[in-house]
Amino acid sequence: MPESFYPLLNIPGLLPEILLVAAGCAVLLMIGPSRRYVPWTALGAVIGALALLLWGAPHPGAGSGMRFTSAADFVRHATLVVGALLTLIAFAQPRDDERGEFFSMMLFSLAGLMLLGGASDLVLLFVALELVSIPTYVLVVLSRHNERSLEAGTKYFYLGAMAAAVTAYGFSFLYGVAGSADLGRVATAVTAALAAPGTVPHAFAVAGLMLSLAGLFFKIAAVPLHLYIADVYEGAASSVAGLLGFVPKLAGIVAIVKMIEAAGWSTDRGALFWTLWLCAALSMTIGNVLALRQHSIKRMLAYSGIAHSGYMLVGLMAAGLYAREGSQVGGLMADGPGAVFYYAVAYGIANLCAFAVLGALRIRGAACETVRDVAGLLRRQPALALILVIAMFTLMGLPPTPGFWGKLSLFGSAWSAAASAPADVQWWIGALVILAVVNSAIGAAYYLRVIAACILYESDEPADAIPAQTPQFGATMAGVLLLIYSFFPNPLLMMSRTATRDLRDPLGFVVAAPANARSVARLEPAAGSPDRDPRSSMLDAHSAAGPAAAPSAR
Q1: Closest-CA residue to 405 (of 303, 295, 331)
Q2: pTM, 2 dp
């Protein structure tokens, strides 16, 4: 096999993802008595994939479209850790939900998220996003006897298909600007185009970024693409809702980080700045206001997820300002993307805890969904009540929970970035941080309502007894992880900061894989070659001219 073809077939680097996909296919085919082994097969696959990552030989990439940077490694490890918790939590669901379809779709979605972390190509990025999303459409409608599930799944599918089309359309604009699907070349081309306002490449770059972000905001349920989330959470099983609160959201955040990186972290001015600012402000405010009105815990968590997406967008804005200024602030407030990654993991685990408790409780055979249903939980099920309280405190951001450290890092990095930003930007960033703090205080109200119901009130009707054989190990492990990260936040904070070291440079995608650089270079036709895309030459000329060419272009 020619050496130049090797980057396309570096199979060892993809062994964890291959294991998850193979296990997903296997559990989907299990029938009859073998179905009892479905959860164990899924758990073994997740643990095996994690073992391959921890003790396998490191690989800089798995092909011309996959480069395993520090950020990719963080996403892959976090995906498998939370995936193991999710699998354990799914053990506690009724046997009707322990079908091969659930665990198969879960494994496919986890594999897509892992691929997304290492994607360095627009095509692979889009394919990975769809590998994350399409299984979730199936998961929502698994409860065929539940009309709410079918209705929610239908809405989710059609809106998701529309968002995917918008994202693909945006990617096509970015490809047109760069003449290449490689994210390193896209970053170079888009950065040059944004530096030349009034030109055709500038218009195409802005259109591509805006359309791409519009589709990705659907993944994280940010305003204005948030209308589906409450119905989907309410109609889905608790284990599915827990998955939806982590996997698509982290996938959307990672993809948005890649898009902002492609813009050269230019979030300090222009359309990208105002888009992120407005969506962050509206997501925080609308999400919290809608959550305050809910009596269903599932709908409350759905709307609060919109607010948490807004908090993470604040951190991404700070990331752009830091990259522009080259800020070297230390401590918790040194890194916008690192704070976002940390917060996404902490939020995902807390969300899993809350839905694990809801999935384990029953009243007259029906799942507990309202605040009234968890009244008196401390007296009936002290362990589950403690897990739920820890989850609510984390989502609230009460010290010293991981939610507190995450919000301190997010808001602190944005506030510090504002101090070094241009004067016309300082006020807007400062106002956004103040708005985020106010919204955090508003959000505490509905979390405290759930905690008060658990501890202070009595239930109107007794809950069903939880069978002794029902395992609660997953919920317990998730609660223990939250406690560990509460008192020892530095390891995860340092890992999340290390994960973003390749994002300091707008060309981080290119410099991240030196081992494959020579082979990849051979795949790119030389300048003047008849095989070279003519748009690349045009863009090279435009980039060489730089901003100075902008007046003549006008």
Answers
A1: 331
A2: 0.84
